[in-house]
Each structure stands twice: as structure tokens, then as C-alpha cells.
Amino acid sequence: MLKLTFCGGAQSVTGSNYLLEGTSSSGKITRILIDCGLFQGVKDHEKLNYAPFAYNPSNIDALFNTHTHVDHIGRIPRLVKDGFKGKIYSTSPGKELASLMLLDSLGLLEKDTEKDGEELLYQRKDVETAMNHWEAVEYHQGIKVGDFNVILKESGHILGSAMIEVIFEGKKILFTGDLGNPPNPILRDAEGPGSADYMVIESAYGDRRHEYPQDAGLKLERVIEGIAHDKGVLMIPSFSLERTQKLLFDINNLVENERIPQVPIFLDSPLAIKATAVYKKYKSFFNEDAMKIIRGGDDLFNFPGLKMTLSTDESKAINNTPAPKIIIAGSGMSVGGRIVHHERRYLSDPKSVLLLVGYQSAGSLGRRLMEGEKLVHIMGEDVVVRAKVEVITGYSAHADLDELYRTVRLASNTLKKVFVVQGEPKATLFFTQKVKDCMGVDAIAPEIGDSFELV
After folding, report:
1. Distance CA 251, CA 236 (A)
2. Do 189 and 182 meet the contact criterion of CB atoms below 8 Å apart?
3. Which of 272, 284, 405, 447 ranks highest by number of CB atoms within 10 Å?
């Protein structure tokens, strides 16, 4: 018997957590997890992080991590705290980035705990214990856990991200994790899914298409030119992994080809600065075009005018630099981090621009600004929004509707069922119906707690 239970990430973008239980013909039970992420967004949703796991962590034999965004790894230290003693598997850069992300997340959780008087989800010692459990593996390296045979395949989402392919007594299940948005200027594209009996696929953009990448770069150029002309401030809330590196890559290209005026540019995110250093360390994961640029002597993530502000004092000093200027800071959905300080200061300035380049979860400040709210509450202060709000979808690190559909189609000849997850209900249900109607493949949008026997 093979049983799949959706413990998170079902009809929700965040909280990715899937339990796979295999009972062999001898009666031996092996249990593995795919991801163990934080629930993010609205407060009611975040409360799920503190609920008991839907399984006994001490009974889990291993955990496989698709990638290191906190909605995929953020509850791993809690899992360890509650008794998990198995191994955690990811790629090498995935392991290194996980340590950065979990410690950064702990800092945010500590601030929330002080403010709300809640229990701290985990301690620093739990992160350290989790990293001691963590084992780095290569793409396509065979891993055997009980009667499960597992490999990681490249997913093209962020540095070291992976699809997880699991085989149990002849049945093959593919967990896509988050799929990348090709073509990526830095990383290799996702591998094809190959054959599979069952697929668990993300659907963050399951009901829409992205702009073409070249259109995204042109729009970024126009926004920067506008800021320079108006002498305003360009604020870019950006995820520390992948989104920031793509932005730096494109701005580097614009600066070195003299396509934009000289403007001070601040990378005001300690996490993004540290993550960019990890990117530089693992150049072997880059695509051939990026490698050619590096071999030509160019630093993809550094250029004249860029200042990385690691310390708090350096961050505060950004206020002393007159406009025009560009500030790239976390968090990507404006739910914390340094970007909210800049938004509080500059959103009321009609010369300034807030540029959204990533997914904005329902209920987040970024989503509310994207939807046009003109009065927002930031750090205890009401802020009237007079700045322009621009959106570029071409920088998304997620596959769009067409790319998701292509992934399913490539495996459609063997698929018995597709489980559509990691999207808001509207996107998830739209994509589920499209797979059923256009491909004739059985597809379902599970809810949290749903279990299925895979026969």
C-alpha cells in the first residue's frame, strides 16, 4: 500500500508538507516527508504553524526538501524539536541556503513573539540540530530510504532547487516543488518530468501567463529612467533568493551598457547579500550563457553604483542619500524586513515608485498595495499611498500556466492522477479543470488533511 497525505500546501501557496507512507509486502512501513514549510500570509493562516503536526515526527524516516524558501523549509526546526531524528536531503547549495534562511526566519519569529506574546516556534539549537541531520546530494544520485528509492531532478526555480522523484514497488510519484520560469538568465531550466504514475504539481500561477522576459527587462529600464527624471525613490520588495539575483543581473546589464542614468542602488537585505555570496560559490549550477559572461571576467552581481548595506546603521544611512535612488530590500511581500521601513517613509511621495516583482500572497501588505489600497498601516503608522505601484510578472521564479501545462503534458501518457497544490484556490481549481478538460488526465485539488491510496 502507498498512501499520500496532504499536510500543507493544499489550496494554499504556503506550508508545503506532504507525507508519503509505503507499506511493503512484508508489512514494513516507511514514512517520508516532502518539504516542511511555514504557513504565511494572513494571521489566521499563520496560526497553523503552531498546531501539532498531522503525524508523529519521531516516526518519519526521512525528509526531502525541494528548495529553501521558508514556505518549504520553515517548520523543519519545529519538526526536529518535536522528535524527528531522520535525515534531511537536498542539494549542496540547498543545504547552505537553508541555514541562512532558517536563522533569518528565526529572527523574524522572535520579533513576532515579542509583539504578540506567542510561543516561539523553535530555537537556534533546533536549527543547529536540523543542519546536523542535513545531507547534501547531487541531482540524480540514488537515495534509498526503506523501500523508497528517491532522486532529485533540477527544477529551475532557485539555486539548487529540485523536483523529488519517488519510486515504491514500481509506482513512480513526482513532486515538482516550485517550477522555474524559463528562460532563466542565470540558472539552468527545469528538466523534463519523465514518466510518472502520479504527479504533485504547484499552481501559484495556474490561471495566468507571465510577461516575456525581454518585456520585463524593458519595463525595469523604463521605471528606472522615470525615477531618475522625477528624482524619486524606487522601492523594490524582493525575495532574497533568485528574485534579487535576477534583478542584480539585469541592472548590471543596464548599467554596463549605459542604458540607464547613474543612480545610487542599495541592496538593503543582509539575507540577500549572504545568499548572493552562496550563488557566487556555486557557479557550476549556472547555465552556459551565465558561465560565458563569468569566463569573460564579469561579476554578474556587482556593478558601479551598487552599495550593499549589511548593518543596521548602513541601512539607516540610506535616508541621507538624496533622491533619485533605488532600494532593493526584503521581504518580497512586504510582511517584514527592511523594506517596510522604506515603504513607511516613501509611499506617501508621489514621485516615488513601488515595484512589485514577485508573488504577493493574499492578505500581505504587498498584495493590498498591488490591489490599489490608498491607506495602509505600517509599523504603527497610517501611511497614505501616493507613490505609483508598478508590477512586473516576468521576474517571477514560478512557472506560469503554459509552463505548468507543458510539464503535465510531457508525462501525460503514463499519468494516473495529478494532484494540484501550492496555489490560491482560484488558480489551483482553474489549472485542475484545464488538465482534466484539455488532456483527459484525472486531476484533483486536494484540501489539507486529504489522504489518497496510490494503487
Report:
1. 13
2. yes
3. 272
Q: For 338-390, how does the pLDDT look when each residue is reduced to its tens digit (9 = 90+)?
A: 999 999 999 999 999 999 998 888 889 999 999 999 999 999 999 999 999 99
- The top-level CATH class assigned to 213-391 is alpha beta
> Does the pLDDT value for residue 444 go beyond 90?
yes
For 263-284, give one letter per residue: b (16+ CB within 10 A) or e: bebbbbbbbbbbbbebbeebee
Q: How far is CA 210 from the centre of its chain?
A: 17
CB-based contact 362:342 (threshold 8 Å): no
Q: Dump pLDDT digits (tens) for 313-352.
A: 999 999 999 999 999 999 999 988 899 999 999 999 999 9
Determine the topology of domain 2-208+397-453 in CATH: Metallo-beta-lactamase; Chain A (3.60.15)
3-class DSSP assignment, residue 244 = helix
CB 238 within 8 A of CB 332: yes
Residue 88 to residues 61, 85, 275, 403, Cα–Cα distance (Å): 9, 9, 21, 29
Specify the pLDDT at position 369: 97
Which residues are CB-neighbours of 320 under 8 A, at least 6 positions away?
none
Residue 116 has pLDDT above 70, yes or no: no
Q: Which three cell numbers stand for residue 125?
A: 539549537
Contact (Cβ atoms closer than 8 angstroms) between residue 256 and residue 303: yes
User: 213-391: same fold as 2-208+397-453?
Assistant: no
CA pair distance 308, 311, nearest whole angstrom: 9
3-state DSSP assignment of residue 231: coil
